[in-house]
Design goal:
The complex is a heterodimer.
Chain A lengths: L1 H24 L10 H29 L9 H23 L4 H10 L1 H18 L3 H7 L1 H6 L3 H13 L7 H26 L9
Helix pairs in contact in A: 1-2, 1-3, 2-3, 2-8, 2-9, 3-5, 4-5, 5-8, 8-9
Chain B lengths: L10 H4 L2 H19 L16 E2 L12 H6 L12 H5 L9 E6 L5 E4 H5 L5 E8 L4 E11 H8 L7 E6 L19 E5 H4 L5 E6 L2 E2 L9 E3 L12 E7 L6 H5 L23 E4 L9 E2 L7 H4 L13
Classes of the chains: A mainly alpha, B alpha+beta.
Chain lengths: 204, 313
């Protein structure tokens, strides 16, 4: 189980992207529909957000299931989330905006959903860069503090999604509830650890 | 059927008989075609309509493919994804159909769709459609001017607005089981907008009976307004003295006004309306500038003279 978890997760995370590429290239009769740019952007953003939330579910799962090795899968999930979100961002920058800097600047300044989405992406960049073992060693205890940026990034990511929905808030609501649960679990755990320091050493 | 307040006037008495007879021949084809509307899409060659082409009211832009028009649209009654209407409208029965005409008019009542359509000759008009979500299409509708229908029912001097209602059938329209909007969908026009020659009641698309997902069997098309004004699957047309409520305005009054005229200078509070993506132009086509009144300004701008379109958006 443990041995297969990593390659299985690697393949599972690549599947939505592979499917999108197949649709983009029109393989096996698949297609992206009438509005391929929006479809690409929406699916990449959707999977990026899902994987980001999945990344935040790793630690609670490891603790609750008492399987510390699960934490070893976190970096891969996080980097996959970053990959999808980078492609989401690039689709917007290139295909949607065509590097129209005037319109990009106006959107960043005037459209809160773009402002928060862009901010969320910028917050994730240093996390992806410092995800290697070398950077973890070099940064030491600072690494954990830096990587807390994932929390505001996830919150802003959901806000970015929520803000462009016209009337059907069900999907962003589900993401928001799951994230609230994951963050709530952390707050609860931090309080317990503060109350009894002995528990703090159990699982990082 | 409700008794009309005034003397009941058959449509045949309003239309001169010589025109009526020729129209009846056209309608014979139409009704026969409509009867086949419920058969599967594979038999779509059997749902051809008889119509003339109205080049004067058509744009020269190349129309979108039938595939794009029938698989990518908003019709929240079937779901909020733009692929949902095509996927989930199969169980919808556009026949038999009736339309209630009510309110401030001399002739009111509930009429079968055949009675509603009988006196009208159909024409094809290629219109631009601009969605409030900043994408656009070019669509060859088949229909007739709403003004011609309105005249038959003789609205009184109190009729200042026309209100429309979509059918409420949650058992056939899965989106209506979810309260994303207040069902049934309602829309409205000012009387002069409703009487404008560009305002179309459509029964067809690409020369064929409207597919369920595009608002069968009867829908409105107002090409200078955002797409949500063009209400689908109409079951009631009501003449009112006061401005009627409209669905998106009820849902988010700060974002969607009663008029909803296409206007590149008045942004949606959350996104820009300056440019639009023309569906079908490919992955590498940049957005194109949106035109005031969706390019129909010459014909309709006079309707709004003296109004502050930033406030009355």
């Amino acid at each position: 189980m443990r041995r297969f978890a990593r390659p299985a997760l690697f393949i599972a995370c690549a599947l939505p992207l592979a499917w999108l590429v197949a649709r983009l290239l029109g393989l096996a009769g698949a297609g992206l529909g009438a509005n391929p740019i929006d479809e690409l952007m929406d699916r990449l953003g959707q999977w990026g957000l899902r994987l980001l939330i999945a990344t935040l579910a790793v630690t609670p799962l490891a603790v609750i299931l008492r399987k510390p090795w699960i934490v070893g899968l976190r970096r891969m999930l996080g980097l996959y989330a970053f990959t999808y979100l980078s492609l989401h961002f690039l689709t917007w920058l290139i295909l949607d905006q065509w590097f129209d800097l005037g319109s990009i600047a106006a959107d960043l300044a005037k459209r809160p959903y773009i402002t928060v989405g862009f901010t969320a992406f910028v917050l994730l960049v240093p996390l992806a860069v410092t995800s290697t073992a070398g950077w973890m060693r070099r940064l030491g205890p600072l690494w954990h503090r830096l990587h807390r940026l994932v929390y505001p990034a996830a919150i802003l990511g959901i806000a970015h999604f929520w803000w462009q929905v016209k009337a059907d808030w069900r999907e962003p609501l589900v993401y928001a509830l799951v994230l609230a649960g994951l963050l709530g679990w952390r707050v609860h755990r931090a309080r317990r650890r503060a109350a009894s320091p002995a528990a703090a050493v159990a699982v990082r | 059927m409700k008794l009309p307040s005034g003397p009941r006037i058959a449509p045949s008495e309003i239309t001169p008989p010589e025109r009526y007879v020729t129209r009846r021949e056209i309608m014979a084809g139409m009704v026969g075609a409509a009867a086949l509307a419920s058969v599967p899409a594979s038999a779509s060659q059997d749902v051809r309509l008889k119509f003339s082409r109205n080049a004067r009211f058509s744009v020269s832009d190349p129309p979108n493919s039938r595939q794009d028009i029938t698989t990518y649209n908003n019709f929240y009654e079937f779901g909020t994804d733009k692929g949902d209407p095509a996927r989930l409208a199969g169980r919808f029965r556009p026949q038999p159909w009736s339309v209630t005409i009510s309110g401030e008019a001399e002739v009111t009542g509930t009429f079968t769709l055949e009675d509603i359509l009988r006196p009208h000759s159909l024409e094809e008009r290629i219109y631009r459609l601009r969605c409030v979500e900043a994408w656009s299409m070019v669509i060859p509708w088949v229909g007739f001017p709403l003004a011609e229908l309105i005249k038959r029912f003789r609205p009184t001097s109190r009729a200042k607005f026309v209100a429309f209602k979509t059918v409420l059938r949650p058992e056939e329209m899965p989106g209506q089981r979810i309260p994303v909007l207040r069902w049934p969908y309602v829309e409205g026009l000012r009387m002069d907008e409703a009487m404008h020659p560009l305002t179309l009641l459509a029964v067809g698309l690409y020369g064929e009976v409207l597919p369920n997902q595009n608002g069968a069997p009867l829908r409105l098309v107002v090409p200078w307004k955002y797409g949500f004004k063009s209400i689908k699957s109409i079951v009631e047309i009501r003449f009112t003295e006061r401005q009627p409520p409209t669905s998106w305005n009820l849902s988010a009054p700060r974002e969607y006004g009663f008029y909803a005229n296409v206007n590149p200078d008045v942004d949606h509070p959350r996104w820009s309306q300056a440019r639009e993506r023309r569906i079908g132009s490919g992955v590498f086509a940049p957005r194109v500038p949106t035109l005031p009144f969706n390019g129909y300004g010459e014909q309709v701008a006079a309707l709004y003279r003296g109004m502050d379109l930033r406030k009355q958006f």
